[in-house]
């Protein structure tokens, strides 16, 4: 489903000569100076021309090139060019303390963070996607406080999984060599493919009551079908420390360059979204989320106050209408302004109807690398992905420090490059679209997903733990099955293989398993009457289903005699409905045969024929 993003609603009205109020202010400041200099001073003509040209160029820069902002950015950059002292770090990373599952900033603002488990959005059917998007719209409409959605990239850590598996190996030393090989292989695969894990967080700054805000967000996320959990104090510390590359309590050194920032030996560059396409598909950010590379994605969402927004939009409409009327009098066309006027009207109409809300959003991407060359390559790749989505990317030159802070899990939008957007259009930015590492500690490695993340799953935790492997002949189905069997054996799973062609003989010998040959000449055979840990009543029902398979189609009298014979064969071994007797030695088919022979001797002439057919 396609969603339409309205144009930037803020409009700078043209007062005269196509100039805004700010531009006219600069003109009135510089023009008198140039006039006085040229006509009222006794300087040499060439000096007058030289000074006048420079002043005019300066005025032009202030009016049309936003020189004031550039001066402000360069000044701020120069102040934070090199950060080494504790006071500088305290100002740059304004974290006062982390306690009680909260990050407390220098201004005593509290931050709570929810960790959100993403879903495989792209493989959902269209009606499911629409339902998720509609639920996300309800989540957006329910919040009256700013939030930050953060996708944080981290190195893949499988230590918890390996530790759990190693505990099981201690009970069976025969598998220790296999575990070592398995661990080495999985680690080599992840290192060769440069696998990085990604976690999704919802960062919530305190506005009224931080606990109430967190509970609201958790309940609304649950309605979308997203599992979320409150990030605890220790995890919050790890998240902040890893983001700012802490070592011994803080970063060693931060060097701020115009086009990148360097923390110790790590190079970082921030890209911001400058322009957005007119139409987007639901979940379109998945192409960025699932891209390879070490980068963080930060989406700041700030809802407007409805009453204030109504007044502001009415003012914007008046300014736009005035300029459109002026253009009409001059018989000139301004298609961009006409579209903006229509968008503003539609947004105001929907706000008044209570259909939508208006938000300010900021989209930043924080690229990381170990060298400048790698950083430039990653930056260009991310910019190419953004361009493919018709999002115009720009680098925050001289503002890398603010960019890094805006991508930190601290809900600080210091870069302040925002764009207004409605609820419906913002729902297309749904970012929780690709699953990354979700390793079950009791699971086995099944394969790699599209992001090269290992799929480690315990299928026995699923509601229906059945599976099937389909592929063309010779493509490796048997190899895959043997591989999974060996990995399940590491987990202590009991495996039974029905092997008509004897393919698994070597595997059974390798893991010292038991081979049962179904043959009249074999030394081993399956006893169908063995309870094998099953319920006695259920086993008897199963046997009544098995007998027609072994003996052919049975009549009702035959089924009756078989049922009685089975009961008596079990009673002879002391096995009854009492569960304490179920571990007794089970009967075999010979015992069942003897019970039928006994019945034949006691039966009437008519019954003997029925029982004899069973005995035969």
3D architecture notes:
It is a single chain. The chain is an alpha+beta fold. 46% of the residues lie in helices and 16% in strands. The strands form three sheets. Strands 2, 3, 4, 5, 6, 7, 8, 9, 10, 11, 13, 14, 15 and 16 form a 14-stranded antiparallel β-sheet that branches. Helix 1 (21-40) runs antiparallel to helix 2 (45-64) and helix 19 crosses helix 20. It is elongated and about 140 Å long.
Q: Structural class of the secondary elements?
A: alpha+beta
Low-confidence stretches at least 5 residues in length (pLDDT < 50)? none
- The backbone outline, from C-alpha atoms, is elongated
Strand content: 15-25%
What count of helical segments does DSSP give? 21
Helical content class: 40-55%
Q: In this structure, how is the largest beta sheet organized?
A: 14 strands, antiparallel
Task: Report mean pLDDT, rounded to a whole number.
Answer: 85
Number of β-strand runs: 18
How many angstroms separate the termini?
69 Å
Radius of gyration in whole Å, from Cα? 37 Å
